[in-house]
Amino acid sequence: MPELARSHGAHPAIRSLCGDTNVCGQDTGRKDRIISTILVPLEHNANAEKISAVAARYAYRLGARTLLMTVATDSSTGELMVERDWIEALAARISTAENPVDGVATSGDVVASIARTATDHSADLIVMTARRQTALGRRFRGSVTDQLQLRTAVPVLVFHDDLLDAFDETNGGPGTLVVPIDGSELSSRAIPFAHTIAAAVDASIVFVQSMLPSPYIASAQSLGGGHVLAGIGDADGDGVDRAARDARQAGLRAEGRALYGPADVSINQVANEFPGSLIVMSTHGRSGIRRVVLGSVTDKIIRSSSHPVMVIPVHAATDH
Asked: Residue 166: pLDDT above 70?
């Protein structure tokens, strides 16, 4: 596996996050960097160049470096060399002097290879596309995105193939971040990521809380749903106001919305008000029967939303 030796200066838009004389992604002793390396796993297909270009522009806006990767399912030297030549050529086409892009090829199990590469190269974010599936299809076949949430603590930014063109028009940065919170410590773990991204790309943040009437709260709690049903942890809706106030005190544009109704419907409703928005949310990383019985708000959003979704695993680091 080739070693990476490149580093580059921070984009001016995010120097305030890294210090005027520091370089994002380098070990400067600061602890406020959340995203400095973005890993982009790719299949050898027609969409590869488009997702690579979108991810590279996104990395540039964040002052992060971009690492493209592909996985040869056959460990034979011949296939691995073909995949290596392809990914390195793709990286070279996208790379610029201001925004270098590197490529690496590995072999073996796809999910294990992505998780291992993320660890080896200290990736802070994995950007990948996903195909839409029904809940039943995901239950029986699963997906690389689902499995990564269980195998790694690195956040995953998920695009559906049919969303690439819309996000491409944002020039690598969303104008609005939609951040669902429910008063739990888990949901609040998405907030530092939202702050970092909003500051880097000059985006607004809309915090969303979906509240259920009290009979539904009791029913959900009796099923053991807890915060997986989002919106039952802070029934008065003050949580979104506090989160918005804290963001504004940090110099960001932010507002809070509290809505009654199912969480996935409320989140999509707000996101649809802002074309080119990005949903940033935490997940418990549940699997198996608990996910099927209780449902997963994150899973529903990934399947149904017309916007990219950044999934923050429960064990994701919020500082370095």
From this structure: no
Contacts of 114 (CB under 8 A, 6+ apart): 39, 41, 69, 71, 126, 144, 148, 152
Contact status, residue 298 vs residue 189, Cβ threshold 8 Å: no
Give 169-227 pLDDT, tens digit per residue: 555 578 899 999 987 888 888 999 999 899 988 999 999 998 865 444 444 444 343 33
Q: Residues 46, 229: contact at Cβ < 8 Å?
A: no
Contact 170, 134 (CB under 8 A): no
Contact indicator for 16, 89 with CB cutoff of 8 Å: no
The confidence score (pLDDT) of residue 214 equals 46
Handedness of CA 83, 84, 87, 92 (dihedral sign): negative
pTM over 0.90: no
Helix (H), strand (E) at residue 302: helix 297-304
For the beta sheet containing 101-107, the strands, ordered from the edge strand earlier in sequence to the opposite edge, are: 101-107, 65-72, 37-41, 125-130, 156-160, 309-313, 278-283, 176-180, 204-211, 254-260
State the residue for tokens 């060399």: 81
167 closest CA partner among 281, 41, 35, 277: 277
Domains of the chain: residue spans and CATH: 12-168 (3.40.50.620), 176-313 (3.40.50.620)
User: What digits encode the pLDDT tens for the residues 142-155?
Assistant: 467 777 777 788 99
